[in-house]
Amino acid sequence: MLVRVIPVGKPPAAIIEAVIKELPEYSGVRARILPALPVPKETFNQWRKQYNAEQMMSILCKTQAAKFIDKDVPTLFITDEDIYYDGLNFVFGLEDPVLSASMISLARLRPEFYDQRPNNFVVTERTVKETIHEIGHQLGMDHCRHPFCVMAFSPSVGDVDSKKKEFCSSCKIKASMKGINIE
């Protein structure tokens, strides 16, 4: 499977490149980085001091740079902005099967968000896990009840840290039953 990766705003290129490098090993997915798009400022919620992820993805998918005829090649947007989804205080990522797109936010994956020292290794590890998780959704997989599976729901950064980058054996079996080979 191929995924198009589009930076939104100015997320660090080194983190995006590190994520792209690890994807094939854990998910069998290859990725191609496309030119960055600006953050749609109209999706910013002044009261929350966050961007509405659903609106952001909808607008980004309509831009000339992100319009693709082939919906079989999903798009992954990566941003440094803090995002939320209706009913939730924040999200690390979001997937929309209709748009064939997903979005990852680095904001709350960064240790400094929690008043810790910056650590590119930690943010890269977390971003890889959340990227594989969103790609799993694009492959039609649901959240997993196994806390160490990459498809486990992560309501906190501690949950992201606890899970592995791999799909559990149950998820691998479910994927194979859908004709998807995850190594």
Distance between the termini: 13 Å
- Number of distinct helices: 5
Widest sheet: strand order? 2-1-5-8-7
What would you report as the Rg, rounded to the nearest angstrom?
A: 15 Å
**Beta strand %:** 15-25%
SS class: alpha/beta
Approximate shape: globular
The CATH fourth-level homologous superfamily: Collagenase (Catalytic Domain)
Show unreliable segments.
none
CATH architecture: 3-Layer(aba) Sandwich
The number of domains: 1
Find the CATH topology.
Collagenase (Catalytic Domain)
Largest sheet: 5 strands, mixed
- Helix-strand pattern, N to C? EHEEEHEEEEHHH
pLDDT averaged over residues: 91
Fraction of residues in H or I helices: 25-40%
Instruction: Count every beta strand, where a strand is a DSSP E run of 2 or more residues.
Output: 8
CATH level-1 class = Alpha Beta
